[in-house]
Amino acid sequence: QRGARAEFSAAGWEARWGAPALPKAGGPGFRAGIGALARRPMPLEEVLPDAYPEELRGRGWQHRLEARFAHFICAPGAGSLCWHWLVVYGHVGARHTGGVALYELNEELLKFLFELGASLGGVPVGVVGDYNVEPEESGLLTAVLATQAWHDAAAEHEDPQPTCFQAGGSPSRIDVAVLNTAAMRCCRGVR
To answer: What is the DSSP string of 111-161?
Structure first.
């Protein structure tokens, strides 16, 4: 993380990292974990679960320490309004290969993220990252999007394109940006 932060810094980016991912059994040491970038001079800071409502705090620490999510804030433009970014790394195998157990773990992670996002009030919130499921494969994500309080940013602006291309597999769109209405009002496009 330090090396990557130095490279990003030299290129004019502010980088922040959540908890490092624990190594897989028999694998190399710690992996990088979840992070976020902001173009300087925009400030970017991590929000720790101690700041959450009591009913979300324990799950927040659990998911953060598992390197499944990190919460960042930034203040674009004049800095008068903070944006909250909930960056997610869903459970690998939640789509097909991991069976019901991983799918349910992933749904619980997503449930937590959208509960946290809703608890922040009317400020702009984005739940972004590698969901490890396509939007229509997640019952929870389908229900959240149906409320129209949350929006699939790519689907709102264009015909969503695949974001993941695995060798020998079909392309998929498991990397998604879901924005609340306050954030969606400010979104001019998705790349």
So the answer is: HHHHHHHHHT-SS-EEEEEE-SS-GGG-HHHHHHHHTTSEEEHHHHHS---
